[in-house]
Structures are given as C-alpha cells and as structure tokens.
Amino acid sequence: MAKKHLYIIVFIVAIIGLSFIQYQYFQIGLNLAGVQFNQKIGETVKEIKEDLSQRNELTYLVGTAISKEDLNFKLSLDSLQDASTYFMDDFLRQKLLQKGVKIDFSFNIHGRDSTLYMQSKKVFLDSEKLLKYPIVLEGYLPDLMKSRVVLELQFQNVNRYFLSQLNGLTIPSIIFIVMIIVVILWVYRAFYLQNNLITTTNEFINNLTHELKTPVFSIGVATKILEEKSHEDQKPLISLIRVQVDKLKSQIDKVLELGIIEEKKGFVKREEFDLNPVLSSICANFKQQAALNNFIFKSQIEEASFMILGDAYHIENAINSLLDNASKYSDDHIDIVFLAFKDGKQLVIEISDKGIGIEAHDQKKIFDKYYRISDGDVHTVKGYGLGLHYVKRIVHLHKGSIEVRSKQNEGSTFIIKLPLL
Ligand code: ADP
User: Fold this and answer.
1) What pLDDT band is residue 281 in, cutting at 50, 70 and 90?
2) Distance 383 CA to ligand 1 centre (A)
C-alpha cells in the first residue's frame, strides 16, 4: 500500500516538475521571440529609412500628398492621399514580410509638432497595448517639408503574435504531457484491476484446496481402515482407491506450492492468530496416520499461546510438508518427533526423523526450487522438488528462519523459528 502511494506521489511530482520545466522553456521562448522580433524590426527600420531617404516613385507620391502641393496631373488631393497611403502600406508590409515578420500593423506620418500628414487605414485604439517604432526620416521628405518628418510604425498584441509563433512547441508539449498522464492512469487502472483479480484468484485457490484437503484426508483414513478389515479379494480394489487418493492429495499440495513460486500477491494472509491449536491439530492428524501406517510419532507442544502474525493455512501446509518428507525419506523404520516451544520472543518448531539423512553439500540446496537429491534410490519417492522451497518461502514470509541439521543414514532435523507477537 505504502509503495503504491509512493508511486503516485513520484508520478505527481514528476508531472508537476515536467510542466514547470515546460513553462520555464515557454517563458524563455517568449523572451527569445521578443528579442528576435526587435532585431528584425531594427533591420527593417534601417531599410525603410534608407529607401524613403531618396526620391523615388513612392516618396514622390507621398511627398506630393503630404505637402499638398498643386498637382501637375488631374487627380484630386483625396484620391492622391488614398493612393499614397495604400502604396506606403504595401511598401511597409513587403519590408516586414521580407524579414519574416507577418503581423498586423498601422502607421502614420507626422511632423515636428505632431501634425498628422498621413494615417493608415487601419488604426489601433491607443488604449490597447501598442508597440510603437518612430522612424525619423531623412533626405528627400524632410527636405521637401523643410521640417522633421516621422514615420511611426505601430504593432498591437505582440505577445499574442509571439505565442502564435511558439504554438508549434507549446501545443505538442501539452499534448505529450496529457498523453503521459492518460497512459499512466490507464496502466495504473489496468494494474489495479489485475491485482484485484489476482487476489481473488489466490483466495479462491486457497479456499478450494482447503475444501478439497479435508474430504481427501477423510477418504484416505477410511480407506486405510477398510483395507485392514477387508477380505483378500477386495484388497486390490481398496488399495487402488488409496493410491489414487494419495495422488490426489499430492496434486492438491502442488497447486498450493506452485502458488508460492509465482509469489502472487495476496497468497499469504496477515492475521493475528494462536498457532498452538493449529499445531495440536496437525499432530493429532499425523498421529492417526502414524497409527494406521504403523510408524512412530511423538509430539511435544509447550502449553502456551503462540500468537503470530500470518496465515494459519499455509503454516499448516508447510509443517505437513515437513512431516510428509520425514516419513517419505525414512526407510522401513519411521520414527518422527515433533517439538514446539517458546524461546524468548521466538517460537521454535523442530521436526526430526531417523531417516536416510541428507549429505552436507545437499543441505544448502534442498530448499532451492525444483531441487531433488538424485543419487541412490531416492527417486522411488514421488515429488517435484517444490515442497521445501514452499516451506522456506512461507517461513520467510512470516519473517522466520529455517535450518536443517542432518547426517546421512542417521536422520534429519528441520528447525523453524517464527517471531511471536
Ligand atoms: P520433494 O520431496 O518433492 O522431492 P522437497 O523440496 O520436499 O521436494 O525436498 C527436496 C529434496 O530434499 C528431496 O528430494 C529429498 O531428497 C530431500 N529431503 C527432504 N526432506 C528430507 C528428509 N526429511 N530426509 C532426507 N531427505 C530429505
């Protein structure tokens, strides 16, 4: 749970960080666009000044219009002014376009005392944010007017213009950030749903195997009793049932053991419970088995409560697995001892047999997945090498430890230590 929250926090921090960095880049971009704009306008202004300093078609037309001189040709002053405004507008637009500046503008030409000589068709209201570039003209026009002539270029909403230039960067980065958020949320949702499914499946497997084990165990005991009391001609049939019941039991165990291999979430519960009655019932059942199969089983459980945090069902299975091994890996003479006692804040469980024992170099490996001792006739005993791996995982999931002490041909002792609450 804590891990899940940590991931969410890291994700949120990363997205906020990314957005902040994008915003900083955006600001830098805006500033750069401003600098670039000023630079381009500066160059344009220089060219405009140069072009307008000479007498040419445009300056002549403008000069005539603003000086309101008598006309040599038959045109009214108004239409002459209209035409020169139009040409001036066109000239300025071309100049700006040549520098790659594609923005709405207005202009006016005024004299020293702000006398307005000429005004573009488009007029920006002064209240709006206006950027003004006054160009003091030289040469032909001021000479003609015998006064200062200023051409004022005006731009409006330059920030909006800069933004439109940055759109190629800001819009994709917003889209990408949104895409990341959407994908992560989608993955998170899928993961969450899957996890729920896994937990439900694990609970189902645990319940199912639990429900199957009890009847299978009872059938096993009943068949054993029947076998002893039956007539000779019935014996083969009954022993067939017993063999098949044993197989079924081991298959059920495998389902459980396989669960731990994949370390599925929710496989092992975490509940507070007293392990003492669980151990007593395991021993009572195993005693029955010992009586039926004519082997020795002694148990000694300290009379105290063994409160632990974990999953009673899996601990029961793990211990049964060790008891099964103790009987499986003993030759004809089966003699098993079960001990459970408190040692400080620990519960110690010991399962000893006087069986075939395990060589020193195998002792470390027997807890590995799929490991089986291959020499001798051990393989006459069925198994997949998963039992001890399962036991070890379960013990570790309960924050405990397991060790083995063994001598070949003398027997083995498996010692489990579990922390008590
Ligand atoms: P399986 O019993 O299915 O082979 P386990 O993981 O339970 O798998 O055991 C691994 C191996 O450890 C076994 O093949 C066996 O050789 C050895 N072993 C386990 N328990 C004992 C025991 N009590 N005495 C001797 N050998 C054992």
Assistant:
1) very high
2) 8
Q: Is residue 77's pLDDT more than 70?
A: no
Q: How far apart are the first and last CA of the chain?
A: 22
Contact present, 66 and 118 (Cβ < 8 Å):
yes
Domains assigned to the chain: 2-165 (no CATH), 181-262 (1.10.287), 271-419 (3.30.565.10)
Of 255, 372, 395, the residue with max ligand 1 atoms within 8 A of its CB, to mutate for a pocket test, comes to 372
Nearest ligand 1 atom to the CA of 351 is 23
Segment 153-176 mean pLDDT: 82
d(CA 373, CA 388) in angstroms, rounded, equals 12
- Cα separation, 155 vs 130, in Å, equals 6
Index of the ligand 1 atom closest to the CA of residue 383: 3
User: What separation in Å is there between the alpha carbon of 385 and the centre of ligand 1?
Assistant: 7
pLDDT digits (tens, 9 = 90+) for 301-357: 999 999 999 999 889 989 999 998 999 898 888 999 999 999 999 999 999 999 999
Q: Could you give the 3-state DSSP secondary structure of residue 124?
A: coil
The answer, as to whether pTM is greater than 0.70, is no
Beta carbons of 267 and 396 less than 8 angstroms apart: no
The DSSP output letter for 70 is P
